[in-house]
Amino acid sequence: MTASETWLEQLHDNGYRITAARRAVVHTVFGATHALTPQEVYDAARKIYRALGLVTVYRTLEKLEELHLIQRVHQPVGCQAFIAAGVGHQHLLLCQGCGQVEFFEGDDLDALTRSIARKTGYQINEHWLQLFGLCMNCRS
Amino acid sequence: MTASETWLEQLHDNGYRITAARRAVVHTVFGATHALTPQEVYDAARKIYRALGLVTVYRTLEKLEELHLIQRVHQPVGCQAFIAAGVGHQHLLLCQGCGQVEFFEGDDLDALTRSIARKTGYQINEHWLQLFGLCMNCRS
DNA sequence: TTCCTTACTGAAAATCATTTTCAAATAGTA
DNA sequence: TACTATTTGAAAATGATTTTCAGTAAGGAA
Ligand SMILES: [Mn+2]
Ligand SMILES: [Mn+2]
Ligand SMILES: [Zn+2]
Ligand SMILES: [Zn+2]
């Protein structure tokens, strides 16, 4: 069983059917090392399953996001791209050169959020953190 | 001189003309306490200048962003909203209840970014940080 | 102040991404 | 194998944004 089959299982366990179209989308997104737009998923997945429709890509991404298997990636160039979701408390590190995505963990914003909460009177529930830089390849 | 006239000056200094349409947009966005979409800017600014066209709102927001007077706000509900830009190194704190926007400063991510840089080999250039919570009003 | 050039305007049309509709196909169970 | 609800892709609809264009007006020069 390839790892992407976990996603198919999850789809199945949630009452969704496993189809050739969904296999192609899942396989494409699961294996990606950078965030893909629906159009990019479509182009790549059609190499696996020619008859695929763009509409089905949108519909499948919607379900994968709903099951928290993928997450939307916000970038200066746009916010319509998706990547396999991180596990636990992780954030993204994006290469500004090639678009490669990495996850990292270990950020500790407790002191900061407590301080901001005190100063502003807000009850702070969540945070978004994203790092941008250049990967090893793109540095040279 | 109201504070929003600084923006008009900046437009002028950069070779753009000051028009009634731009005055209305600038005044609207400058005074906003939460991020506004182009349509929201249009609706509000038309109370000041009836003949305003939505197209001009888009065009003016584009210029204000280019001059770093406003910045785009990314939120779960969408990423097409703008707010007056913070000065210096600041980040946003957003109320999940009413959408109110606050800026804060004083985050220190140096230790974190150094650690991530070492682990991943990335050269880290930038970060996005955003806090979400409930403002004093929306807590009760 | 008046004149003149050029940037700016709003309406309408065009474009582009996403969503909806629908009839045919098919997954998955009985 | 037979059945039924889900899923499909094509086409149409939608909605946001951008482009086009002819008229308007800002603002420097005289
Ligand atoms: Mn975190
Ligand atoms: Mn910071
Ligand atoms: Zn790279
Ligand atoms: Zn609030």
Structure report:
- Two copies of one chain form a homodimer.
- With 140 residues, the first copy, chain A, is an alpha+beta fold.
- Chain A folds into two domains: 3-84, Winged helix-like DNA-binding domain superfamily/Winged helix DNA-binding domain (Arc Repressor Mutant, subunit A, Orthogonal Bundle), CATH 1.10.10.10; 91-139, Dna Ligase, domain 1 (2-Layer Sandwich).
- Chain A contains six helices and five strands.
- Chain A has helices at 5-13, 20-30, 38-45, 54-66, 110-120, 136-139; strands at residues 70-75, 78-84, 91-95, 101-104, 123-134.
- In chain A, strands 4-3-5 form a three-stranded mixed sheet. In chain A, strands 1-2 form a two-stranded antiparallel ribbon.
- The longest helix of chain A has 13 residues, at 54-66.
- The mean pLDDT of chain A is 96.
- Strand 5 of chain A pairs antiparallel with strand 5 of chain B, so a sheet runs across the interface.
- The structure holds manganese (II) ion (MN) (2 copies) and zinc ion (2 copies).
- The site of one zinc ion has 8 residues of chain B, from helix 6.
- Chain A binds a DNA duplex (30 and 30 nucleotides) through residues 15-19, 21-22, 38-39, 51-56, 58-59, 80.
